[in-house]
């Protein structure tokens, strides 16, 4: 990503520039943390990285594809095939069980019923949730919900996993378990990860840490406080 700008109410007296122009480069297989306080612009940048939002200016090549030069339908297909998301508040669908939550991205991608069930069961076993696959989200603890969310994020074999404050709603012990899972995915499964956090200790565990202040990347000395 080069020269990415994101502003709201553009061209009006109320214009708010959240990201004034940043570069972000990541190699396949990296585990990169973007750390910053609330309001620093990190979640806005994540939405652009994840193709959930478009910048006002700048360029973005994802594995050589100019993803800003396609229409919204094509962008949605590209996102579904290449990017998985894990959010702070899990974003599971409450009325269906864990297995069907994991199946959902595959259903939208046109995977057959048999294949998506097998893939969902395989992923839930991988994250230690095989014995809870028929439970609905309201029957699961926070850590269990997040493990289901990680399995769902991996459903379509994404090239990139985006994790936005994935331990923020969890107690420290459960957060540690989820962080260990990310390390396992990176080290043993080769998953590329962007890890968004306000916690510098968790960020320090990642391969590379980038500090964001007021929509810009700064060195660590400028990020203190």
UniProtKB/TrEMBL annotation:
GO terms for cellular component: membrane protein complex; plasma membrane. Residues 1-224 form the ABC transporter domain. GO terms for molecular function: ATP binding; ATP hydrolysis activity; transmembrane transporter activity. It comes from the Bacteria. It holds the Pfam family ABC_tran. Keywords: ATP-binding, Nucleotide-binding, Transport. Coiled coil: none annotated. InterPro entries: AAA+_ATPase, ABC_transporter-like_ATP-bd, ABC_transporter-like_CS, ABC_transpr_LolD-like, MacB-like_ATP-bd, P-loop_NTPase. This is ABC transporter ATP-binding protein. It comes from Corynebacterium mendelii. The lineage of its organism: Bacteria, Bacillati, Actinomycetota, Actinomycetes, Mycobacteriales.
